[in-house]
Structure formats: C-alpha cells, structure tokens
Fold this sequence. Notes:
Blueprint: H1 20-24, E1 30-34, H2 40-43, E2 50-58, H3 61-77, H4 96-106, H5 116-125, H6 130-138, H7 141-153, E3 167-175, E4 178-182, E5 190-194, H8 200-212, E6 222-228
Antiparallel strand pairs: 1-6, 2-3, 2-6, 3-4, 4-5
Amino acid sequence: MSNTEKKVPRWLPLESNPEFMHNLGMSPAWTFTDVFGLEPELLAMLPGPTAALLFLFPITKKVEQFDTERLEKIGKDGQTVSPDVYFMKQTVGNACGTVGLFHAVLNTQNKIPLENSLKQFAEETKSMSADERAAFLAESDIISSAHHESAQEGQTEAPQINEHVNNHFISLIHKNGALYEMDGRKEFPINHGPTSDATFLNDAAKLCKEFMQRDADELNFTIVALCKAD
C-alpha cells in the first residue's frame, strides 16, 4: 500500500443489537422489535405503529445479479426521490448495521424525538451529501465506540474486525408518500412506490417477501421493526 493510499476503516460486525441507538439519543418511547413473520396476524403482534423496518439478508450471486439488473433499469428509466430523504453511503467495513439504523431513525424524525449525540449528528450532517455523511460517520469517535460496544454485547463471542461478513442490513422507510429502500452500498435510495402511515408495514412486508424470493435457496433472513413502545 502506498503512502497516499487510504486504508478503508473497519468496525466489528454488528448483529441484532440495535438498542445502542437509545444510548446515542433516540427517544425511549420507540424501540426495535424482532419481526417473527410477515403474515398479517404476526405483523399485528408488533407494539404500536411501525416507523421503519430493518432487513438483514445474505449477499449471494443471485442477489448481486438482481441488484445489477435493477440499477440498470433505474439508470435507464429514472426514478423520483424526495429531497427530504436522508441518505448516506457506507464506507466503513462492517458498518451496514449502524448505517441501516441511522437511515431508519434519521428519516423518521417527524415521529421520533432525538437528543444528545444522535441529534447533534443529524443537525451537523443535514446539508451534507451522502458521501460527506459517510466520511463524518467514519470520523465520529462517539458513534464508532457505541457501535463496537454494541457489537461486543450482541454476540457470545465477538468476531475479528477483519472477518468477512456475508450478511447485509438495509432499511425500509416511508417518506412523503413513498416506500424507500435505503442501502448504503448503493449510490442512491430506491423508490418502491406509494405508501402511507396506515399501509407502510404491510407494504414493507410485501417488499421483504420479494427480496426473499430473489434467492429461494437462502433461508437466513432477519427483520427488525422500529416501533412505538408499549
């Protein structure tokens, strides 16, 4: 590696321990809850209204091929993305969990009050580009420390920081009447069509089912909902 080449920073892989957002300043009136199924009767078990979904899935060749074709179609046909959508890139290795959580929470500030470090991050990055937000996140000692602490707590044995992780987090959010897929690996959010506060959960669940069908051989999926606490 040359002296001028930048080394890509890496964090410990974050599994299913997103509660550290409360420590950063997310309102305790909202919480993250496991989704045990996508059928209406199971979705009805979630507490309170749902503001966002986080979807964890394995990155396979079939998934990558599907994404390539989908992005080519968007490049050809275009799409509409609200300027109010808060999007950031993922440039830190193994940080997709934190980026996904930030996409979920920072796009629902009209519902979820923020304080402390999270509020400061939102205010300081509000007018930044997606790349600038990624750089700001990578340089934040407070957030990286919270991520590492959460990654340690969320697993029986913490992985090595350079360990290859094949699973990836994305967020599904509702912003200004549209359902968006928020994936820090991509160049932009993806608009999946109309939704509303009343239909968001069912619309997002339907999209998760479509994602699962991209590689029918895979069964390793996790879905977490950002919900109003009981």
